[in-house]
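ok so for the tutorial part 2 we go from a plain amino acid sequence to predicted structure tokens. step 1 is just haveing the sequence, like this:
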Amino acid sequence: MVYHRAAGHADREAGTEMREDAIFRLASVTKPFVTAAAMRLAENGRLDLDAPVARWLPDFRPTLPDGSIPDITIRQLLTHTSGLGYAFREPAEGPYHRLNVSDGLDQPGLSLEESLARLSAAPLHFAPGTGWRYSLGIDDTGFPVHAPSRLAKAYADGNPEPVPMTDGMAVPLMGLAATFAPSRIFDASSYPSGGAGMAGTASDVLRFLEAIRTGGGPILKPETVGLMVHDQVGATAQTQGPGWGFGYGWAVLDDPALTGTPQAAGTLQWGGAYGHSWFIDRKNGLSVVALTNTAFEGMAGAFPTDVRNAVYE
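step 2 — the prediction. this is what the tokens look like for a chain of 313 residues:
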């Protein structure tokens, strides 16, 4: 461990200072954990990555715009090449909004069955395997909060200060908006969102990332990690901008020269909408986690870039 710190407030209004064991709503930081779980099942021969998801969910059969019903594989779900999407990435008149598809951040009490029914009724954006689009393809597990007193209060970007997040609040991001419901995590009837539903601490995330950085043990075999850290979709993804592709659970840096980043080729990186960022630079032996309680600044503002640059300086 080179550096660790808690700073700022877990609750600004109450004056509660942030603590290192604070619990955060992890949002998309959940995805690498769920992806690793799926890969472990594949290692054990219990999950075939190239099998159609309809083997387990026979009623989940989204159609293409022409009405045809393609097979979607587990591998395509994990790499966001299934043709599914997210409501926050669509215009207000898009099918996900018309069908009230949840992004896993909102709608407390929405059941798994109803969530899958709505998602299945929406047309696919493209034929599975022919494109890349960040999606709800990993929504299949869930995690409760066992120590609510340690849960950091959620905030949205504000001027001049962050503002407390409330259920139903739409937070702007690059001309779009995501709708949040911070109370969702306390409602046991909410469908288990494996793409955004986990809660945990910075040390939880760091232990997982360090396991990946050092070869996978005891979670995964080195050869499985070797597959996961390779770009699976190529330049079409540009998941973090030019030069970035996508592996299993995270973006993969293919060409640092296109990005202006000090990170080495092969760096893995992702974040979470509630205000989180992390990366693993295996060449330089670095695992870096920064969890905040402000959306979206903590994920996509100046803060994560400043943290990255400070690490390399």
